[in-house]
């Protein structure tokens, strides 16, 4: 079985991708510094797939350790690179942290493979589009000035990858621009596990519903949208994980579009924050205690993707809807109440 390195593999999207890689016949190998995840997720993954994945704990910003690992593991045929700082709001407050973590880790990996052939799938984001001129946004839409340092790291990382693929024969790269991952594995054994105060909407919803938090604050309801709330393209994390497997498979076959390519990964449908809250209330039977606060710096008004290219060329399409996203996240929150993971 082909070995695939998953950086940030104990994190939210990474852990689900490890599961889907294994189900697809690959041998996933995880590197994570555990700065925003727990080593206990390894045992949770083992409960799902029946084996404990190979795990290495270190920081990919460490050039020597990264290079040594790559040199000592010549049988790795592909990389899925998640490891990065990822909160929009925090990036506005701590831009240097984001530029350091997100660039050094990427460059160290690429330099370690400068003399070796590698299939490379990069965790990018719809934030590269900024506030789109037209919706749904396609992959050919202009990349606008980022609204946050986090978004800027994704834009610049894509430029680094495109230029590296053009300059070196050994890199074959796909960047997946995904929208808003939510939900949890159907087993309720893995899901989003924020350390401290959640930075994303759905953990705040589920933690409020279960009583961990007194109330949910929604950042603004005066946007230019039908109900005044921000609109996002929510995608189930399991669907998103499967898109990474599809990207590795396309690179293995040889991508007819060349050595560097980008794909939108979403459902192609936008839901407002209020619609997401109402969907959660419907599937959980809970009434959420929420209030509207001021807008959050760096947030855009509305974005959802055109996923035609992903369907036709990547051979992937989202299967799970908003209610399945909400119900799986609620199952995961209830699991955590009885089985805390810290």
UniProtKB/TrEMBL annotation:
InterPro entries reported for this sequence: NAD(P)-bd_dom (IPR016040), NAD(P)-bd_dom_sf (IPR036291), UDP_G4E (IPR005886)
NCBIfam families registered for this protein in UniProt: galE
Catalytic activity, reaction form: UDP-alpha-D-glucose = UDP-alpha-D-galactose
GO molecular function, one term: UDP-glucose 4-epimerase activity
Enzyme Commission designation: 5.1.3.2
Protein name listed in UniProt: UDP-glucose 4-epimerase
BP-aspect Gene Ontology terms: galactose metabolic process
Gene (UniProt): galE
CDD domains reported in the protein's UniProt record: UDP_G4E_1_SDR_e
One of the record's GO cellular component terms: cytosol
Cofactor(s) needed by this chain: NAD(+)
Subunit structure: Homodimer.
Pfam families, per the entry: GDP_Man_Dehyd
Pathway(s) of this molecule: Carbohydrate metabolism; galactose metabolism
Keyword NAD: yes
């Amino acid at each position: 079985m082909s070995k695939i390195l998953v950086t940030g593999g104990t994190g939210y999207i990474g852990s689900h991708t490890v599961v889907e890689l294994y189900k697809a016949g690959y041998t996933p190998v995880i590197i994570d510094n555990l700065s925003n995840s727990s080593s206990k997720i390894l045992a949770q993954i083992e409960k799902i797939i029946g084996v404990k994945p190979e795990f290495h704990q270190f920081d990919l910003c460490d050039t020597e350790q990264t290079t040594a690992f790559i040199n000592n593991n010549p049988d790795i045929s592909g990389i899925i690179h998640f490891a990065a700082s990822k909160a929009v709001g925090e990036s506005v407050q701590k831009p240097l942290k984001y530029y350091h973590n997100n660039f050094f880790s990427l460059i160290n990996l690429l330099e370690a493979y400068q003399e070796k052939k590698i299939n490379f799938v990069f965790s990018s984001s719809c934030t590269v589009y900024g506030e789109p001129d037209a919706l749904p946004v396609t992959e050919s839409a202009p990349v606008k000035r980022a609204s946050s340092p986090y978004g800027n790291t994704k834009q610049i990382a894509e430029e680094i990858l495109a230029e590296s693929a053009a300059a070196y024969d050994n890199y074959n790269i796909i960047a997946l621009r995904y929208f808003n991952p939510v939900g949890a594995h159907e087993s309720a054994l893995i899901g989003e596990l924020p350390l401290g105060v959640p930075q994303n909407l759905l953990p705040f919803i589920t933690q409020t519903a279960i009583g961990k938090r007194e109330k949910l604050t929604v950042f603004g309801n005066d946007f230019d949208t039908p109900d005044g709330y921000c609109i996002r393209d929510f995608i189930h994390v399991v669907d998103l994980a499967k898109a990474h497997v599809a990207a590795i498979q396309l690179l293995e076959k040889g991508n007819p579009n060349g050595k560097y390519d980008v794909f939108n990964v979403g459902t192609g449908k936008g839901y407002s924050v209020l619609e997401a809250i109402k969907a959660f209330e419907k599937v959980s039977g809970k009434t959420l205690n929420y209030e509207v606060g001021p807008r959050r710096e760096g947030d855009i008004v509305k974005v959802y993707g055109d996923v035609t290219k992903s369907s036709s060329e990547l051979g992937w399409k989202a299967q799970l809807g908003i209610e399945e996203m909400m119900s799986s996240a609620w199952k995961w929150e209830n699991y955590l109440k009885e089985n805390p993971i810290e």
